[in-house]
Amino acid sequence: MNQQLSRRRFLHFSGAALGTAALAACQPAAPAATGEMSEEQPAAERVQIEFLGMPGSPDLIPEEQELFHDENPNIEWVLVQQAQGTSRLEQLMALVVAGTPPDTSRVESDVYRTFAHLGLLLPITSYIEADPEFSAPDYWIQPQEDNRQVYQGESYGIGSCWVAPHFYYNVSLFEELGVEPPSNDPEEAWGWDDFLAIATELTVDVNGNHPGDTDFDANNMERWGVNWPTWWIPLHAAVQSNGSDWIDAESEKIVLDTPEAIQALQNIADLRLAHGVMPRTEALEALGMGGTQLLETKKVALQVDGSWALSWSWEIEGGIGTAVLPAMQRPGTDMQAHLVTVVQDAENPDEAWELIRFLSSPWYQERYCRSGLWLPSQNALMTPESIADWCVAPEHPPGYELIVTEYAPNYGHYLTMPVGYVKAAETAINPVFSQIFNGEARAEDVLPAAVAEANQIMEDEQARPTS
Question: What is the domain count for the chain?
């Protein structure tokens, strides 16, 4: 490695890296390590390229390996099984320290820059620039792709896809109530006040009362108007919709202490605390249901969830509908996804690149877009002809192409997480989020100090030597 990672530094960063949840919803369960071999070429003549983590769906991997081996008969793609009781991120760092790193790996966006900073990842800029397809200026959806790939002038990975939070609803519920559902068109996004009024109308206790009615019983509910989860991806969407950022692109400092960000976060908390249109944590725990079940049982009218949830939500009884999130000041959502990378100590980096390239090909991405799990990051999958081929029923409801072509690329913002961000969030930001969303504190009273502490932690982490 260019920068050797000491055992002490490994322990320090692995503890920080594991502090927050990454995009687990997009990560299928990992099967045992596999590497299908063709009969035409013995294993001894093939270069083995290990990939740590699951790049896609376990059900589709065998077919993908077969095609990759057909196209690259000199390379064997081997999936490295995730160790029992160990996160993939911790496992990667442990393998590097032990001197037995995999050649390639899935890396979540929250630790991508930290891993690059530590010298764990191989710069692949030269490979991208030498590739006539990947280097074309109109190949990727921009500027989001450069925002996530490039760290200090180098690309260390390629984004697998995009995902973005938006509304889901049960079509039959809105038909029964005679309520016009929200739209997939960002130009027709509900304003925040309109959204609150409709969410109040949709919220009802077992006696038919709504929030604000004298006899409204918040402890005996028939249905809530909305469920807006309070983890960072849905919250980033809210912050963006109020015209603010989570992290400033120029300074790479957390800016959740701006008036707009504070108001956005308090708005989400007040859905539960002030307006009574969103279930409290204890109510959700008592129900024991996920977002899809809440929609299917009609306990929640509008569910905020990632676009990946479409891959299973489309099957609900009553039919699934989707829509853009409400606009506080403007339409806005988060765009995120894991990256596929070449590990710094890869023994055969050229062959490792061929695997990364395959995992970033239109063929590979399209199959997961078709299932509803991913949104495209490649413009080739955004043409009317391509959309008409993969963005179709039954997985995609009518109008979903507007989420794909208008909402995500035009109003989606990538949350760049600088070196040390995960530790800063775990130490300083997440504890005050708990206070805000549990009603123990107002955002304006606790966020300024928390942001200052978090930025100092990031500054200290970035100044630490990597050896």
Answer: 2
